[in-house]
């Protein structure tokens, strides 16, 4: 019996346990689809609550993902890129404004007092005063007839554009009489006077980004603080995208700082008035 037991084969039985379906990988695919759907929902909700400029920027990306077009595809652009994207448009606007101003009857005698330059903030239109005044009555925020006519002409062109507009008032360093009314009030009041003319001629209130009065803190002719050329109103057609950058808390090159080099070049080319400045 023992001998026969040694010759019996050894049989090994392997049992394969069947896995339940709940332990498979199908749930991972379903979860990934759920997360993707939630992300899409959040993006749609964000877009619905965003401004028109953001919607256009997002739409511009899908229409032009390579970024070669004029529509900004992302809000994360620097000021230099914003300026580059609008450089051609601003150059065309400059030419158009110059041609329109030549049609103004009083422009011939004020031609040397109007300067249009392109800077970091946008297209800057400077209305430079003289000893006798050109755009405002001497020592007053009240505009002259010629000043009103020119600003009205600018409004007729600017209202066709989507750009924001900023207005600056500047004075020379000559003391403005006595009392509480100073160069600060005068420069601010003149800037607001220009704003009111623009507003009355088709520029809506939401187009104005800033109205600033700088007194004599940003002289055009720094070595000649009494020169009447320092008295000026500046209307800035801002590059598209700068206001969105400000809303995001990003630093924007303002005209007084970012365009300092441009102002220096303008000052070098400005001609000194023959009479000394004593009034505004």
UniProtKB/TrEMBL annotation:
Residue runs in coiled coils: none
Domain OmpA-like: 121-241
Compartment(s): Cell membrane
Membrane spanning stretches: 29-48
Region: Disordered, residue numbers: 253-280
Leader sequence segment: none
GO cellular component: plasma membrane
Membrane topology label: Single-pass membrane protein
Organism superkingdom: Bacteria
Keyword set includes Transmembrane: yes
Matching SUPFAM superfamilies: OmpA-like (SSF103088)
Keyword Cell membrane (UniProt): yes
Pfam families given in the database record: MotB_plug, OmpA
Keyword list, A-Z: Cell membrane, Membrane, Transmembrane, Transmembrane helix
Biased amino acid composition, Basic and acidic residues: 262-280
Family to which this protein belongs: Belongs to the MotB family.
Protein name (Swiss-Prot/TrEMBL): OmpA family protein
């Amino acid at each position: 019996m023992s001998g026969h037991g040694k010759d019996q084969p050894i049989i090994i039985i392997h049992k394969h346990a069947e896995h339940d379906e709940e332990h498979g990988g199908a749930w991972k695919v379903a979860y990934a689809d759920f997360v993707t759907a939630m992300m899409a929902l959040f993006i749609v909700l964000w877009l619905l609550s965003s401004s028109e400029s953001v919607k256009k920027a997002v739409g511009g990306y899908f229409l032009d993902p390579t970024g070669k077009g004029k529509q900004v595809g992302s809000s994360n652009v620097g000021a230099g890129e914003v300026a580059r994207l609008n450089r051609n448009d601003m150059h065309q606007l400059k030419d158009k404004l110059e041609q329109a101003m030549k049609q103004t009857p009083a422009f011939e005698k004020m031609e040397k007092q109007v300067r249009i330059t392109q800077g970091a903030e946008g297209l800057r239109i400077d209305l430079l005063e003289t000893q006798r005044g050109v755009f405002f009555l001497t020592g007053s925020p009240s505009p002259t007839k010629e000043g009103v006519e020119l600003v009205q002409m600018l409004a007729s062109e600017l209202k066709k554009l989507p750009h924001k507009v900023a207005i600056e008032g500047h004075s020379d360093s000559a003391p403005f009489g006595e009392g509480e009314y100073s160069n600060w009030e005068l420069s601010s009041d003149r800037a607001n006077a220009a704003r009111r003319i623009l507003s009355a001629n088709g520029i809506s209130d939401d187009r104005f980004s800033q109205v600033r009065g700088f007194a004599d803190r940003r002289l055009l002719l720094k070595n000649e603080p009494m020169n009447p050329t320092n008295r000026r109103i500046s209307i800035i057609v801002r590059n598209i995208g700068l206001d969105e950058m400000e809303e995001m808390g990003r630093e924007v090159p303002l005209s007084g700082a970012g365009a300092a080099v441009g102002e220096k070049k303008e000052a070098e080319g400005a001609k000194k008035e023959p009479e000394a400045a004593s009034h505004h």
